[in-house]
User: Which sequence fits this backbone?
């Protein structure tokens, strides 16, 4: 009886151990140790995201930004969708700046803390900076409305039709919002995770170089 009890305890211990198993990966998808993971982890250049796969948790590092090109076919579809949801014509000679909200998370579960006056000052400065770059207004899009913060009526949020933006640029759920800037030729810069308006301007300047 005692041996049977010991066997049961060992089996339960094994089950709990396997359920808590965590695998770590670097930004290239290479499996690394927890120590290597913590050493490489740096919120300024990468994000740590976790995924549950059966009884195993995979924790991976993702770069905070990515550059690349999309085809004209995809670009045309994005422009078409934007025109549909905004009811406005899109100037194809300008970059598109899309601020993206994927849904409720730890960052938007409470208020932003910004006052109406702070919103006015920040948005006015942001618009002036975009105008100096010769660019139009940014677009605000969402995969899910849940968790969108109060913006005092300054921002108009639009749905991402067919989740095209998410499928093209934001294949994982990045915390605290993301943005993508797309040039008329299809070149883009995507920024993942929490960001400031200053970072949008900085990346826009990088793309215009």
Assistant:
């Amino acid at each position: 009886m005692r041996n049977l009890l010991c066997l049961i305890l060992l089996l339960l211990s094994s089950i709990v151990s396997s359920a808590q198993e965590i695998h770590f990966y670097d930004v290239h998808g290479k499996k690394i140790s927890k120590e290597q993971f913590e050493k490489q982890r740096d919120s300024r250049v990468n994000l740590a995201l976790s995924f549950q796969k059966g009884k195993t948790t995979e924790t991976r590092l993702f770069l905070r930004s990515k550059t690349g090109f999309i085809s004209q076919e995809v670009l045309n579809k994005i422009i078409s969708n934007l025109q549909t949801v905004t009811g406005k014509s899109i100037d194809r000679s300008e970059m598109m700046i899309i601020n993206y909200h994927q849904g409720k998370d730890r960052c938007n579960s409470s208020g932003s803390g910004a006052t109406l006056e702070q919103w006015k000052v920040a948005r006015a400065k942001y618009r002036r900076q975009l105008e100096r770059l010769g660019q139009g207004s940014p677009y605000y899009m969402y995969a899910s409305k849940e968790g969108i913060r109060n913006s005092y009526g300054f921002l108009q949020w639009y749905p991402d039709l067919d989740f095209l933006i998410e499928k093209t640029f934001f294949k994982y759920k990045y915390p605290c919002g993301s943005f993508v800037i797309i040039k008329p030729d299809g070149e883009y810069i995507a920024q993942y995770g929490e960001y400031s308006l200053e970072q949008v301007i900085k990346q826009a300047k990088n793309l215009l170089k």
User: Anything to note?
Assistant: The helical segments are 2-19, 34-40, 72-86, 116-132, 164-169, 197-208. Residues 2-19 form the longest helix (18 residues). Strands lie at 21-25, 31-32, 46-53, 56-63, 65-69, 96-101, 139-142, 157-159, 178-182, 187-191.
